[in-house]
Automatic annotation (TrEMBL):
Keywords: Kinase, Membrane, Transferase, Transmembrane, Transmembrane helix. Signal peptide: none annotated. The chain crosses the membrane at residues 7-25, 31-49, 56-75, 95-114. This is Signal transduction histidine kinase. GO terms for molecular function: kinase activity. It comes from the Bacteria. The keyword Transferase applies. Pfam families: DUF2809 (PF10990). The keyword Plastid does not apply. The lineage of its organism: Bacteria, Pseudomonadati, Bacteroidota, Flavobacteriia, Flavobacteriales.
Length: 127
């Protein structure tokens, strides 16, 4: 169990690094960062629930990403101030965009498929 969490944690931090890097390189489209954000959320949930079915992780990831995106529609003073911080900008985002919902959806689908393929490959290899 511990090794599984370690692997997911390594993937999680790698995705964070790639996501930040994607915002620093001008020729990388902005949606790549949103795509990677969703992949990061998928693996964050995986860290806490390593042995849950992938379909449950898929649904929890979608709900989390969509909730954070729709939360951007809320413009309470305290929330606007929180979004001005580094944490708020990276975690909560700045404004609602339907394109972010699409990027999140594709990011989570990709993480789900890659994980399923990888686990299937590793299970076949261990037999």
């Amino acid at each position: 169990m511990k090794k599984t969490r370690i692997y997911y944690t390594l993937i999680f931090f790698s995705i964070i690094f790639l996501g930040i890097l994607s915002r620093k390189i001008s020729f990388i489209p902005l949606w790549i960062g949103d795509f990677l954000y969703a992949v990061m959320i998928y693996f964050l949930i995986r860290i806490f629930l390593p042995f849950k079915k992938a379909s449950i992780i898929f649904l929890l990831s979608l709900i989390t990403c969509y909730s954070i995106e729709f939360l951007q529609l809320y413009q309470g003073e305290w929330m606007v101030e929180l979004r001005k911080t580094l944490f708020g900008r990276y975690v909560l985002g700045q404004g609602f965009l339907w394109s972010d919902i699409i990027a999140y959806t594709f990011g989570i689908i990709t993480a789900f498929i890659v994980e399923r393929f990888t686990l299937r490959f590793l299970n076949q290899k261990s037999e």
